[in-house]
Amino acid sequence: MSLQAVVIGASAGGVHALLQVLPALPDDFPAAILVVVHIPPRRDNALVALLAEKCRLTVKEAEDKEPIVPGTIYMGPPDYHLLVESDGTIALSSDEAVNHSRPAIDVLFESAADAFGDRLAGIIMTGANHDGARGLRAVCDAGGYALVQAPATAEVAYMPEAALAACPAARVIDLEDLPSVLEEILDQ
Amino acid sequence: MSESIEDIEIRLLLDAVYHHYHYDFRHYAQASIKRRLLQARAQWGYDSISEMQAAVLRDETMLPRLLNYLTVQVSEMFRDPSYFRALREKVVPHLRTYPSLKVWVAGCSHGEELYSLAILFEEEGLADRTIFYATDINPSALRAAQAGIYSLDRIRLFTENHRLSGGHSSLSNYYTAHYDRAVFEKSLRERTVFSDHSLVTDAAFGEMHLVSCRNVLIYFNRELQDRAVGLFGESLVRGGFLGIGSKESLRFSSHADLFSEFVREERIYRRNAQ
Question: Could you report the predicted ipTM of this complex, rounded to two decimals?
Answer without folding.
Answer: 0.91
